[in-house]
């Protein structure tokens, strides 16, 4: 039972699905996937019955997946589990994470729930599951509940071999999703000469990393008139032979930069495997990810909503805070974890504080206007719309000019410290170490160090604790400390956190002066 429960990874499920990773055994098998899918199906039915106050029939759930080599075999278990739960099953085939959520909203599909099979940028040996209802992605406690039920099912099942009870119905949802994105670009640009092809005259390079993002080239950009010659790694390949499909990866950004400069393109786009994250390269070849991508999106959002709060994780720079406030915005620093950042934005909006952008330094970004969904393709759509708008207004500077006054820290570093203990004790050990760090600062043992806070969004105690009547459950321990002295004032910060992916502690630090 613990084997299944340990697959929970925050609001996702992740595990090793294929042999080939040194020191790791396969734990996400087809029977395990079946038990989890069955539990999810039952959970969805239960929630719908609670909402409607009556029994429900014909509950529809879709499944999409990235091109990982374990996808086909795990799909058999997921289809079987959903059918065993009494659900109607729809096979989206190769898809993206945001598309799976949108399949619960866009007509005529509007499924009751959806599952995306992906492990994001992790190695080909891994795979995982993300869960959605019409309300959005499931929370960590909800996934924990589903994994707990699945663990009992798996332990009590006599025969751990999946049998597909009812064949799923194949659907071409990605075509509808692409059309949805195209319509947004056409409507928002509203080109005065060629409405249906607003990207005529623009060359845009796409690097899909051999993941699921190739569709954006031929089914979105090409159909809007863009020249996409020079795009790379568009064909899906579950072994990811060219580089890690990750907008934070230096190789991915370097290859995209080279393609942009070689082709004199207007923009380069980098998607992660399942397209819930993205990064870009401007026409000068400058990579825009991390803080720079948050600044770019902040500049776009604050032009339309100048008093908006921008929610980010607490690993962003002091310069980003300055960039946001100089444009009339407010910066809320919060817990690391894209789900934490997005949920904080949802909470603020419910409390009457307009938060139009929630974004993590990893490239996960969500907009209020887009269902609070972290969608790498939609993020790029907004950047493309801004690029065209600037051109129509007579500017040839390109989107990089929007962040030309963003300062960079003089020093920046990230450290990973392995936790030397048995895997089952690693989490507790990490919490012990991190709490010791917090207490050391609170007791004043380091002069000039102070736990950070963000009063505007009711966040205190090192950007971890919600100072509200109903604080959000803490899924991983982490603290940010600001550092200052009499000569320089506040000049840097240190952030220490427990990894939910691996048995280690991550330490990030930045300084605006050389030490």
Percent of residues in β-strands: 15-25%
Task: Report the major sheet.
Answer: 8 strands, mixed
Q: Report the average pLDDT across residues.
A: 93
Q: From the alpha carbons, calculate the radius of gyration and give it in angstroms.
A: 23 Å
Number of strand elements: 24
Q: Enumerate the spans where pLDDT stays under 50 for 5 or more consecutive residues.
A: none
Number of helices: 13
Pfam families: PGM_PMM_I, PGM_PMM_II, PGM_PMM_III
Domain Alpha-D-phosphohexomutase alpha/beta/alpha: 7-153, 177-285, 289-389
Cofactor: Mg(2+)
Protein name: phosphoglucomutase (alpha-D-glucose-1,6-bisphosphate-dependent)
Textual characterization of the structure:
The protein is built from 13 helices and 24 strands. The chain is of the alpha+beta class and 515 residues long. The strands form five sheets. Strands 1, 2, 3, 4, 5, 6, 7 and 8 form an eight-stranded mixed β-sheet that branches. Strands 14-13-15-16-17 form a five-stranded mixed β-sheet, with helices on both faces. Strands 18-24-23-22-19 form a five-stranded antiparallel β-sheet, with helices on one face. A hairpin with a 4-residue loop joins strand 20 and strand 21. The termini are far apart.
């Amino acid at each position: 039972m613990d084997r299944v429960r340990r697959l929970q990874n925050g609001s996702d499920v992740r595990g090793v699905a294929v042999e080939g990773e040194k020191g790791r055994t396969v734990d996400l098998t087809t029977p395990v996937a079946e038990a989890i899918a069955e539990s999810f199906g039952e959970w969805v039915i239960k929630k719908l019955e609670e909402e409607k106050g009556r029994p429900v029939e014909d509950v529809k759930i879709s499944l999409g997946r990235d091109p990982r080599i374990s996808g086909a075999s795990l799909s058999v278990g997921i289809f079987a589990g959903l059918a065993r739960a009494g659900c109607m099953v729809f096979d989206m085939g190769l898809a993206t994470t945001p598309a799976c959520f949108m399949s619960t909203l866009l007509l005529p599909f509007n499924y009751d729930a959806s599952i995306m099979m992906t492990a994001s940028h992790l190695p080909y040996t891994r795979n995982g599951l993300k869960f959605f209802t019409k309300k959005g992605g499931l929370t960590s406690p909800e996934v924990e509940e589903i994994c707990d039920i699945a663990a009992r099912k798996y332990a009590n099942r006599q025969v751990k071999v999946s049998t597909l009870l009812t064949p799923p119905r194949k659907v071409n949802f990605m075509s509808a999703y692409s059309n949805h994105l195209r319509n947004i670009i056409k409507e928002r640009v509203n080109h005065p000469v060629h409405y249906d092809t607003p990207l005529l005259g623009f060359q845009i390079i796409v690097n899909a990393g051999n993941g699921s993002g190739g569709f954006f080239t031929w089914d979105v950009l090409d159909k809007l008139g863009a020249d996409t010659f020079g795009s790379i790694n568009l064909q899906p390949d579950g072994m990811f032979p060219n580089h890690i499909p990750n907008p934070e990866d230096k190789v991915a950004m370097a290859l995209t930069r080279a393609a942009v400069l070689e082709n004199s393109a207007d923009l380069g786009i980098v998607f992660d495997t399942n397209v819930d994250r993205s990064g870009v390269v401007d026409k000068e070849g400058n990579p825009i990810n991390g803080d720079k991508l948050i600044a770019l999106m902040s500049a776009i959002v604050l032009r339309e909503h100048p008093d908006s709060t921008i929610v980010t994780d607490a690993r962003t720079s002091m310069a980003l805070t300055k960039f946001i406030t100089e444009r009339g915005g407010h910066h809320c620093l919060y817990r690391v974890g894209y789900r934490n950042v997005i949920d904080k934005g949802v909470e603020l909006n419910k409390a009457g504080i307009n938060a139009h952008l929630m974004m993590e330094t990893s490239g996960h970004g969500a907009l209020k206007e887009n269902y609070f969904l972290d969608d790498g393709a939609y993020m790029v759509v907004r950047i493309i719309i801004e690029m065209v708008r600037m051109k129509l207004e007579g500017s040839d500077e390109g989107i990089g000019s929007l962040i030309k006054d963003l300062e960079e820290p003089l020093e920046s570093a990230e450290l990973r410290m392995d936790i030397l203990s048995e895997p089952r004790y690693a989490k507790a050990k990490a919490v012990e170490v991190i709490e010791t760090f917090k207490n050391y600062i609170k007791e004043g043992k380091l002069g000039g160090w102070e736990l950070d806070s963000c009063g505007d969004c009711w966040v205190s105690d090192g950007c971890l604790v919600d100072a509200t009547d109903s604080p959000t459950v803490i899924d991983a321990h982490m603290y940010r400390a600001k550092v200052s002295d009499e000569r320089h004032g506040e000049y840097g910060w240190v952030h220490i956190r427990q990894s939910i992916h691996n048995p280690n502690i991550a330490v990030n630090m930045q300084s605006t002066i050389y030490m």
